[in-house]
Design goal:
By secondary structure, the protein is an alpha/beta fold. 33% of the residues lie in helices and 20% in strands. The chain has a ten-stranded mixed beta sheet with strand order 9-7-5-2-10-1-11-15-19-20, with helices on both faces. Strands 14, 16, 17 and 18 form a four-stranded mixed beta sheet that branches. Strands 3-4 form a two-stranded antiparallel ribbon. It is globular, with a radius of gyration of 21 Å. Bound molecules: guanosine-5'-diphosphate, 6-O-phosphoryl inosine monophosphate and magnesium ion (MG). Magnesium ion (MG) binds next to loops.
Length: 424
């Protein structure tokens, strides 16, 4: 049984927690897109882990973790993350962490270009994580990228780095940004390459042979469907396909091998960075931030917050083909008197069932809400569906109806154990 776990909103839905919960019965965990813009939190064995590039399956012994060809890897960040995890007692070996030789490399110059482009955009900025993600995927599409296979041979690496740093410095100069010191880049990448070399391999046969042998594979999505470069709130998106299809192109596993697709969503909506968010609501943001919740795992930025957006989720469930939703952070609504769900967008005279394409149309959209009563009690200790308050169960069921996809699990706290199965 091979399962995709995909963020269905604008990222930070709790994918790390859901993957961790499902890893127990898996053999392989694969990341197939994004890079260190991701921050996946797992709370297990009384410890908190935040993962950026390493698949969350690394926290379970005996699992093979794969960084697929569609991921963009900053070698220095990856080495730092491996050190951070080892310091927390996690074992990382060339057997339990394998890295695709086809994955593209994020260089310090990509981070510089990311920052320079954001500054040049001024008030129109995307609000990127400044991890160099967009410029690296741009290099891939322009067919001038450096790949992990280039790290295998130090002489070749030196040549390709010298060439790319020179052209990047021209780009930086055009953006009015200081030039990068080639030696600093060279030293950083060379040092990280020495550590990563034993992990770099052709991951595609490794994964497909495992599938053929009946092993179970979990795909750990990064970001969220509305940040997808094709389906999201373009241009306020990331630079990869964060949706179900991206898992196949980013791992070399064919769609025929996928058995189940789970969409992860919060019981409400959050977003970091700029771009439209129709259900954004100052009151729920103050309430959640007041509880110490919804600060970014990668950047620490306070996340924008709002009510559940049925338009976004309905669309996302459609183009990802979700079989079911894993709803997290249901406990975040414990103290609300009334809970709102957005069922449509009012855009001029029309009620939209699906999001518009144009930013100007997004700006005109107003949420159409349906309200349901809150449950006004702590649900974090509940362990079964039956124990949840009736109003809470009614919200979960109504949520599934509005988006056209059933909720299969709910999260009532950040811990591995705080997950409840919902009878479908
Ligand atoms: P990801 O990027 O999708 O893995 O999500 P993040 O880790 O960036 O953000 C999700 C946040 O929600 C983290 O702080 C998690 O610990 C937390 N979380 C996940 N599920 C639950 C839940 O059911 N209840 C609560 N209270 N927190 C949760
Ligand atoms: P996880 O995997 C939330 C957002 C950024 C910005 C936009 C583009 O933890 O859910 P980028 O640096 O990718 O060019 O930024 O995408 N973004 C995320 N938001 N969670 C993430 O990852 C994100 N990764 C990127 O805030 O709006
Ligand atoms: Mg995150």
């Amino acid at each position: 049984m091979n399962t995709l776990v995909i963020g269905s909103q604008w990222g930070d839905e709790g994918k790390g927690k859901v993957i961790d919960f499902l890893t127990e019965t898996a053999d392989f965990v694969i990341r197939s897109q994004g890079g260190s813009n991701a921050g996946h939190t797992v709370i297990a064995n009384g410890k908190k882990y935040v993962l950026h590039l390493v698949p969350s399956g690394i926290l379970w012994p005996g699992k093979v973790n794969v960084i697929g060809n569609g991921v963009v890897i900053n070698p220095t960040s990856l080495v730092e993350e491996m050190t951070y995890l080892r310091d927390l007692g996690v074992s990382i070996t060339p057997e339990n962490l394998i890295i695709s030789d086809r994955a593209h490399v994020v260089l310090p110059i990509h981070k510089e270009i990311d920052a320079a482009q954001e500054e040049a955009l001024g008030e129109h900025k995307i609000g990127t994580t400044k991890q160099g993600i967009g410029p690296t995927y741009a290099d891939k599409a322009r067919r001038i990228g450096i790949r992990m296979i280039d790290l295998a041979d130090p002489d070749r690496l030196q040549k390709v780095l010298e060439a790319r740093i020179e052209t990047a410095n021209d780009e930086l100069a055009r953006l009015g940004w200081p030039k990068a010191d080639p030696q600093v880049t060279m030293d950083a990448v060379m040092a990280a390459a020495d550590v990563l070399r034993p992990h770099i391999t052709n991951t595609i046969p490794a994964v497909n042979k495992a599938i053929k042998a009946g092993k179970t594979v979990l795909f750990e999505g990064a970001q969220g469907a509305m940040l997808d470069i094709d389906f999201g709130t373009y241009p306020f998106v990331t630079s990869s396909n964060t949706s179900a299809g991206g898992c196949c192109t980013g791992s070399g596993v064919a769609p025929t091998r996928i058995d189940k697709i789970i969409g992860v969503c919060k019981a409400y909506t959050t977003r970091v960075g700029e771009g439209p968010m129709v259900t954004e609501d100052a009151e729920i943001a103050d309430y959640l931030h007041g509880l110490g919740r919804e600060f970014g795992a990668t950047t620490g930025r306070p996340r924008r917050c709002g009510w559940a957006d049925g338009v976004v989720l309905r669309y996302s469930a459609m183009f990802n083909g979700f079989d079911e939703m894993a709803m997290t952070n249901l406990d975040g609504l414990d103290e609300c008197d009334t809970i709102k769900i957005c069922t449509g967008y009012r855009c001029g005279d029309e009620i939209l069932e699906y999001p518009p394409a144009l930013m100007d149309d997004w700006a005109k959209c107003e949420p159409v809400y349906e309200s349901v009563p809150g449950w006004k009690q702590d649900i974090s200790k509940c362990t079964t569906w039956e124990e949840l308050p009736e109003a809470c169960k009614a919200y979960v069921k109504r949520f599934g109806e509005v988006i056209g996809c059933p909720v299969g699990t709910v999260g009532v706290g950040p811990d591995r154990e705080q997950t409840i199965n919902v009878p479908l």
